Amino acid sequence: MKHLRATLCCAALLLAAQAQAEQVGEVDTAFKLIGPDHKIVVEAYDDPKVSGVTCYVSRARTGGISGAFGLAEDKAEASIACRQVGPVRVTQPLPKREEVYSERLSILFKRLRVVRMVDASRNTLVYLTYSDRLVEGSPKNSITAVPIDRAIPIPLK
Predict the structure, then answer these.
(1) Are 63 and 45 in contact (CB under 8 A)?
(2) What stretches of the chain show up as alpha helix (H) in DSSP?
(3) What is the pLDDT of residue 1?
(4) Which residues of the chain have pLDDT under 50?
(5) How far is CA 120 from each of CA 93, 96, 137, rounded to the nearest angstrom?
(6) Tens digit of each residue's pLDDT (9 = 90 or more) over 75-106
(7) CA distances for 111 relative to 60, 66, 104, 116, 125, angstroms
(8) CA quadruple 93, 90, 150, 54: dihedral, nearest 10
(9) Whole-model pTM?
(10) Which of 23, 66, 84, 126 is least surrounded by CB atoms within 10 angstroms?
């Protein structure tokens, strides 16, 4: 029982550490007679370990009946732009590469991922978005970088 409680506690902490997306807006791209229209959504999330940095991800969301019930598989295309939106403060040492956000794009197999990489020699945070599948991922990706003032060195693990 102790092991189960410890495992559940660790899982809750990991989920809490993941960035939470906040929808900024959306535009319709195709009318659907039944169910919601196809859309492009723009979501913002704050990096959970770097305060003062927000990433904006735009991606397609499939509408129709299957989209309404969460059964549709969204396209493996996304764009990302991360910006400094306040004073930057790294709350803990960062690994060279870490997934900071992940969202399901299909009922079982596809996920949209955002990975933070640290370019220590340039004191820059690099964010990459891509999608993957259980069997085969997509080479479509998008990248952005946030340079950090050299007076604030990025601590590494």
Answers:
(1) no
(2) 2-17, 64-68
(3) 45
(4) 1-17
(5) 12, 8, 28
(6) 667 889 999 999 999 989 999 999 998 876 65
(7) 13, 17, 4, 16, 22
(8) 130
(9) 0.74
(10) 23
